Structure prediction request, 505 residues.
Amino acid sequence: MNGNRTRGGGLLVAGATSDAGKSVVTTGLCRALARRGVRVAPYKAQNMSNNSMVCHGSDGRPAEMGRAQWVQALAAEASPEPAMNPVLLKPGTDRRSHAVLLGHPAGDLSSTDWEQGRRHLAKAAHAAFDDLASRYDVVVAEGAGSPAEINLRAGDYVNMGLARHAGMPTVVVGDIDRGGVFAALYGTVGLLEAADQALIPGFVVNKFRGEPELLRPGLEDLEHLTGRRVYGTLPWDAGVWLDSEDALDIAARRTDDGGDAGRDVRRVAVVRLPRISNFTDVDALGLEPGLDVVFASSPQDVSDADLVVLPGSRATLADLAWLRSRGLDRALHEHVRRGRPLLGICGGFQMLGRTITDTEGVEAGPGTSAEGLGLLDVSTDFTADKTLDLPSGTALGAPAHGYEIHHGRITAGSGDEEFLGGACSGNVYGTMWHGSLEGNAFRSAFLDRTLGREPSGTDFPAARERRLDLLGELVERHLDVDALLDLARSGAPGGMPVLAPGGVR
Prediction:
């Protein structure tokens, strides 16, 4: 254990389950503390997600980090950097992930070498935490999954392994909306060994809907049974919507509040690829009045769409085969034949081309190739070198910017026009730039060109700031921020009782 408290303080936000609300609590605390003038940084030792972002590394080069930690850095009013998410695992299959270490490719990791293959990652992750703690007043660290995954505890460096390394107090978040929250919180602590339990002073309850007085007896019993505090209960709020780490909440990523009744509503269908990546590319479309954004996985889902988006993919060849197996390739051709617009982003753009070849075995076996959909005159070759960039330029008469994260190298033919690092032909558009639709001017120009929509005045960056402010306000109102800040600065209090002492281990 590193018990050096002369450096900046730290607090670990763990979860009784996946999707319990660790990201929400971490982000809200970052914004609340930043408002108080605390120099705060977010941190997640290891993030498993295909939702990533480009930032600048310590050497000034473009680097990659998890999208959730990038947003948390915005909440903390800190510059995003790879140390905030030192290990990013991007699943390509159910058993193998592409590893990104401190912003740059670090090979693949398979389920068969999980514990052995992560040892060097753990060392680098803890060093990154120590670096942040030396430069910030407080580091709010987010755990991954649940700390009670006892089958993984020996190699853990994200949850209690991190807490033990830094001597860091840990609060466990429980999702009451799912039910069973009291058992989940008690059981999370009870399954841990005594040294881990000693670092957990209490809990946060998340996603509560209902009358607080009805909940109070349960909270009091939980405190009595565990000898630990409940630091507050965050209410359910439909306005809380953050760039998430994975596709768990894709079905809920709808922003229509019913205010489009009577309007000329256009339907935007986003193809839900099995290995979809950077699906936050369409978040800004979801905020546009008069657009109904849905995720689609069948030909019927896209048949009545006014605009179809083919998003990025971590497994372009495999997802292209999936597309064909479901008849979506024919549906997309019919969509274009009817004169309706189609937008491909990164991997989705590559699928729109003539051929895709994996020369160096980045996704499949070396030399594997497949015909694309043939809607654009481009070809793609996957090579080991990875492109990370923050490009800007002009398209459709408007300023545009975005970020690039890809292995594929694009060769364009002579039949198409250039479009945001990609190509366009007629009503088919392909770009290698993620995030371009977040730019208000370009999004307005694109919707005008493709759907004939007048500029709505929607300001996506301002809307994100309002969501972060809302989250900070909810945390201030409903959590004991003073106590949590004191924990971060002073460390876990001594004398925490051990639950189920001598139990079967």
Remarks:
- Residues 460-478 form the longest helix (19 residues).
- Residues 388 and 495 are 48 Å apart (CA to CA).
- The chain has two domains: 9-241+467-490, 253-458.
- The first strand starts at residue 9 and ends at 15.
